[in-house]
Model the fold of this input.
Amino acid sequence: MSTNKLQKMNIFIKMFIHLSFLIYALNVLQQVIGHLHIPPLPESYWSWEWNVQLIPFYFVGDLISQYHYSQYHSGNSWFFWNAVKLSFYNMLLLLPLGVYLSIYKVNSLKRATAIIFLVSFLLEIVQLVLSYSGVIFARTFNVDDLILNTVGGVLGYFVLEQIKLFYRSFHFNAQNVDG
Done:
């Protein structure tokens, strides 16, 4: 391929990555916020007691209690599988962000973790403020969401970094064998 075609291809790939990131970011925002209510819902609809969960790893106890409940009901509890599904979705939500951070060459796992955690925290704050104001359906500020979102994002970053390392070492070894 000529140099001009390679440059055009690189520009296209970069634009595609930026556009896919924008679409991903808008999708995350829609998943987190949901539907807007205009006019806002009444204030009595939201409460600090029910909409803020500050106990870390509460979801683990929830999974265990739902599992025990399901054992008494033929092992097929909707509540247990819903808790599993929600935990998985929380991990999945920011997994692509970790991949994008690796693509955008964030150089350290520590820095990527901090960025992913801050994005997750910002999403939780947006949920809290918009829920409290009644603009969106009551959502919870949940420390477990912060943990699971961060774990998912770090997993995405780590996996892509490992793939890049494997590719570089494979490519380097292939050049040494050929050369």
